Amino acid sequence: MRLAALLSALLLLVPGFCSAGEKAAFVASIEAGRPQTVVLYGTSLTAGGAWVEQFGAALEKKFPKLATIVNSAQGAMWSKWGVENLDERVIAKKPNTLFIEFSINDAYLEYATPPEDARKNLESMIDRTLAAQPACEIILMVMNPPTREHLERRPKLADYEQVYRDVAKARGLRLIDFSADWQAVLKQGETQWFALVPDGIHPNGDGAQQVILPHLLKSLGLAP
User: Fold this and answer.
1) What's the confidence (pLDDT) of residue 57?
2) Where would I find the H helices in the chain?
3) Closest of 207, 177, 158 to residue 99, by C-alpha
4) Can you tell me the distance from the alpha carbon of 199 to that of 204, in angstroms, rounded to the nearest whole number?
5) Full-prediction pTM beyond 0.90?
6) Is position 99 within any domain?
């Protein structure tokens, strides 16, 4: 066996490891006819995100009655809240897969959460979920950037987004990072940006349909 192939085979034995283009575990399970519970945990970008309903509809269309989407996110919350409410909002739901995104509000100045604390909180949520549900698939998400006053209140957002990238890499977790997609929108100018993100922070239905959903489905191995 060639060295590259041997290394790839060994990496696949690492718990939680996922390679680029590999189907998410819950997708493979659904394709095999096994019902799956997917819990979404994060901020208003998930709690009120149009992408959640669109994602659920896409799964229902492709795999009728096999995927249950539980939106356990809460607007204006951050990872400290995530840790405090994990038992009720996540573990009690017995997820097969858990999506986590709190970086945008961990960066909020008024919450005074240093990046190192944000990482500890994220690691705690992962560890406690896996302790309760050892087979749970954990997927981390980096969402859209904010603009104007929303960005001013989060001047070091990039540091908090990097926490998610670093933890995903260190633990071999799947990361869905929308940053490049949204930067491409920003480069098209304010007219296009505000057509998709009217308040400067929360993508609307068109933003979700055009930017979030295609990347999400592709990243999970669900692209048409």
Assistant:
1) 98
2) 3-11, 25-31, 44-47, 50-62, 79-84, 86-89, 103-106, 115-132, 149-152, 157-171, 179-186, 190-196, 205-207, 213-219
3) 177
4) 9
5) yes
6) yes
Q: What are the angstrom distances between the C-alpha of 114 and each of 44, 73, 120, 157?
A: 20, 21, 10, 11
Task: Quote the CA–CA distance of 113 and 105 in Å, as a whole number.
Answer: 9
Report how many domains make up the chain.
Answer: 1
CA 95/CA 119 separation, integer angstroms = 22
Domain range for 83 is 22-219
CATH of the domain at 157: 3.40.50.1110
Is 224 part of any domain? no
Say how many CA atoms lie within 13 Å of 69 toward its Cβ.
19
Mean pLDDT in residue range 93-115: 98
- Please give the C-alpha separations between residue 68 and each of 34, 93, 115, 220, in angstroms, as whole numbers: 11, 11, 32, 16
pLDDT mean over 147-175: 98
Residue 74 in tokens: 């809460």
Confirm whether 178 is domain-assigned. yes
Give 86-110 as a 3 state SS string.
Answer: HHHHCHHHCCCEEEEECHHHHCCHH
Which residues, listed in sequence order, are joined to residue 176 by a DSSP beta bridge? Answer: 141
| Contact (Cβ atoms closer than 8 angstroms) between residue 158 and residue 202 | no
The verdict on residue 3 lying in a domain is no
